[in-house]
Amino acid sequence: MALARFAVLVAASALSSACATTRYTQSRFEAAPSGADGKASAVVSLEVEGLKVRVETLDRAPREAVRETGGEVPPLALRIAFEPRALGYSFDPGQVVLRSADGREWRTSRAGYEIVHPGASFELAFDAAVEPGTRFELVLGGLARGPKRLEPVTLRLARSEGRSIDRMYWLEAIGYALAVLTYPYGGM
To answer: Which residues contact 144 (CB under 8 A, 6 or more apart)?
Structure first.
């Protein structure tokens, strides 16, 4: 019986250890100002005078879909989340500026200061895409504490490619093998 279980385990291990993956393209932050957490990625966290800010790009697209549309990447979209250490912060999304290397600028359609409470987040969209091989700056302005405006923070953006793991077949095979092995004892 022990030999049979071992044979089943070996057979399950011999199954494909491949993972189903998807290649994607997405904007990422190339460099963050001093005091920011993390490295070049689609998410950057920083603190501005006691206000924790997390900026995440939302323009991920499958690379094949970009190729099918003739290389057209989706427009830049961002989620900006806040965790203030104290009360009194506000944010004007209309003062966030996307600037290309040749000096063109884009702003979101949202404008006006809004109170920032713990867990507050804003989704912003721009009518411009971060194309491969181009560099953009995101000027995170519109932050204030009480009547005092905080200095804008500049982040650099570029397009990158990556691969995400969608499904791990080898993990499923191990699960099936364990289910078979434990079936006589009541299963999993």
So the answer is: 89, 90, 91, 92, 113, 150
Separation CA 94–CA 92 (nearest Å): 5
Would you say 37 and 47 are in contact if contact means Cβ atoms under 8 Å apart?
A: no
Q: What is the DSSP string of 8-39?
A: HHHHHHHS---EEEEEEEEEEEEE--TT-BSS
Q: CB–CB of 105/78 below 8 Å? A: no
What amino acid occupies position 132? P
Would you kindly state where each structural domain of the chain is located, as residue ranges? Answer: 19-162
CA atoms within 13 A on the CB side of 164: 9
Cβ-count burial 97-116 (b if 16+ within 10 Å, e if not): bbbeeeeeebbbeeeeeeeb
pLDDT in tens, 32-50: 665 555 555 788 888 889 9
Query: What fold does the segment set 19-162 form as a domain?
Result: Immunoglobulin-like (2.60.40)
Amino acid present at 13: S
- Please report, for the chain, how many H helices and E strands are present, in that order: 3, 14
Q: 61-103 pLDDT, tens per residue? A: 776 766 666 667 788 899 999 999 999 999 999 999 999 999 9
Residue 148's pLDDT band, with cuts at 50, 70 and 90, is very high
